[in-house]
Amino acid sequence: MPMIPERGFPEAEYAMRTAKAQAAMARDGLAGLLLTTEPEMRYFSGFHTLFWQSPTRPWFLFVPATGKPVAVIPEIGAELMRGTWIEDIRTWSAPAPEDDGITLLTELLAPHARGEVVGLLKGHETHLRMPLNDYERLLAGLGGLRIADATGLIRDLRMVKSEAEIEKIGHACAIASRSFARLPEIAAEGQPLEDVFRAFRREMLGQGADDIPYLVGGADRGGYHDVISPPSRRPLARGDILMLDTGSTWDGYFCDFDRNWAIGSADDASRRAYDVLWRATEAGLAAARPGATCRDIFKAMQGVIAEMDSQGGDVGRLGHGLGMQLTEWPSHAAWDTTEIVENMVLTLEPSLGYGDGRIMVHEENIVVRKGGAQLLTERAAPELPII
Amino acid sequence: MPMIPERGFPEAEYAMRTAKAQAAMARDGLAGLLLTTEPEMRYFSGFHTLFWQSPTRPWFLFVPATGKPVAVIPEIGAELMRGTWIEDIRTWSAPAPEDDGITLLTELLAPHARGEVVGLLKGHETHLRMPLNDYERLLAGLGGLRIADATGLIRDLRMVKSEAEIEKIGHACAIASRSFARLPEIAAEGQPLEDVFRAFRREMLGQGADDIPYLVGGADRGGYHDVISPPSRRPLARGDILMLDTGSTWDGYFCDFDRNWAIGSADDASRRAYDVLWRATEAGLAAARPGATCRDIFKAMQGVIAEMDSQGGDVGRLGHGLGMQLTEWPSHAAWDTTEIVENMVLTLEPSLGYGDGRIMVHEENIVVRKGGAQLLTERAAPELPII
Questions:
Q1: Of the residues A30, A100, A247, B138, which has the fewest C-beta atoms closer than 10 A?
Q2: What percentage of chain A has pLDDT greater than the value 90?
């Protein structure tokens, strides 16, 4: 069993993230950043809890132009927040539909409401996690405040991981790799797919995962048809192609990859699809170097996929960023010209449609180093494994 | 082992939900409802997937004044959506930052952009799950469209559960009740809290849970200090009070309750806090009858809590609704005058602060019937159990 990394981050990591954000804010003319979503609050404060599962209460973190971030949060989170590096913690008794933090936020932002600009996440892959009514009320009460989209700023920061972050993602990947290796002992012909899922979740916890927020997959004769479904009660049958795709976490960081197996025997089309995707991943591994773009990685994989693809199974891209969220910027797609830089953590996720509406997906997780892609996952077998 | 309910719902359930929504829309003068969040999309369509873990793609469901809802979704979800009762499914190749469904939505909503009103969730406990830039662009392209807050309408529908929903929540509660009953065999002095969490997750999966999206708790000498933390590596020690609070799911429906134990021996203050909260729950059970209000339930519990509470541990309310989300409307709080009606599923969650910053929370789940509260959870022991 490999070494288990330290949990959490030293305070210096949060100080560095904040300093980098503040340098970018100065460049972009932002007086502050107002953040409402879990990954961003955790990124700058270290505030880590599953309590975000409850949609009831909004949470706010404000990154000023200088100094530590300020937390404006429900009182129920005060004790946990006091354990982070944040010092200025302002709380209210939430939920309070009439004033869920709006007075506190208004006080905090009022000094900037004389024409200054505050950044907010408004762009791709983001949302505003507070009631829209409250947001409109907040702005109405801060007449002179200008809002700018800070998605690019946050995206640039979060896309490049620290060594400590890479270690956590690598640990999550190692746990899932060990679990996938045990799958032939867990799954068998005749077992309902739902039971395979449940057994695999237990295996991952046993291997050290904290949580399995994401587990999808499919199994069907000669290939699966869908890659985002919950499991059915249909028993695995000889000739099925089985796929499991997991986003399990360790210390709040995700892995995100899948594996494919044939039950009993494999049909020729599925074996060929597997081979094409395995080689497409190889092409992606070779292309994922500093200085390349996401489009380059996409094209490298697509060039191999084109040997077989019938243009079914449009999943929109061939991989993405990975970290505190199951999927993060950037996207391996023709439209994404993001430059690949060292210490990006990425998935390579080639997929293709074949036969009568069947789809196959492969996925690996990598970190980009100076010399190129370094696998964080145990590479899938080069030929479709048979259980 | 009790009977396992059927998964999913008959089409008639979705038709009934839609008909009720449409009756309320007619009452409120709404030409449609535009929904962007997972529970609402699932409520009206049956579209059920963990793929929402990925923040990358927006998903839309439009409930028109008459007829079935219309899905405007990424192509990756088309196959799964075709398995629901929805017929009009419009897809695009997502992600597509330049046009993530906006053209499709604009076409769909254009007929209403001549002064008609479309409902959107803008109120308490809601958020808009799409990039704010895209929302602003959508509205700008539909000059004559008026938006109204439909939170009240959706809240009224979702607060009252069908028998099929109650059965699923009851099943989730039964799974967690059996798992909590096994805790004394799982947890022991000397065991790090993190390992207790992991073993408890495995137990819940073994008892039949699909997933455990929420597990928090605490353990400390003479009482815990925080109720939303992830677990530490600190070993359980004699004199600790241990609390676990879980929101585990079955077929997409949550339970949400906790249990408390003392390790080895219990201090007097914790035993007294436990007794007060157990009796506060009894008062809540007696008060949760059709015709009462959430405020009545709050006051009934608060009256008992007042025997001891030092006003620490402000969690803002003493329970809430429960269903497709860990926490739903309404809130047992002085400000919530929602009338309790039959087939509401609720938590009773009295808490109090005591000693030097310690907090204790109890929680049970109930369904409100004609005659009053019916427990869905196996009632907690009347005295603090010792492991």
A1: B138
A2: 95
Task: Determine the distance in angstroms separating the CA of B373 from the nearest CA of chain A, rounded to an integer.
Answer: 23
Domains (range + CATH), chain B:
11-158 (3.40.350.10), 160-375 (3.90.230.10)
Top residue of B201, B328, B338 to mutate, by most chain A CBs within 10 Å, is B201
Q: Beta-carbon neighbour count of residue A150 at 10 Å?
A: 27
CB interface of A with B, residues 133-192, below 8 Å: 133, 136, 149, 151
CA A41 remoteness from chain centre: 15
- A279 vs chain B: nearest CA distance in angstroms? 23
**Is it the case that residue A18 has pLDDT exceeding 90?**
yes
pLDDT digits (tens, 9 = 90+) for A179-201: 999 999 999 999 999 999 999 99
Dig out the tokens for B251 from the structure: 């077929």
B156 pLDDT more than 70 = yes
- Say whether B131 sits in a helix, a strand or coil: coil
ipTM above 0.90, yes or no: yes
User: Does A383 touch chain B if contact means CB atoms closer than 8 Å?
Assistant: no
Beta strands in chain B (DSSP E): 32-35, 60-64, 70-74, 88-92, 114-120, 144-149, 211-221, 240-250, 253-254, 257-262, 320-321, 328-331, 345-348, 351-354, 358-361, 364-369, 372-375
Express each pLDDT in B362-372 by its tens digit.
999 999 999 99
- Note the pLDDT tens digit of each residue in A71-119: 999 999 999 999 999 999 999 999 999 999 999 999 999 999 999 999 9
Q: How far is A233 from chain B (nearest CA, A)?
A: 10
74-93 of B, contacting A, C-beta below 8 A? 74-77, 79-80, 93
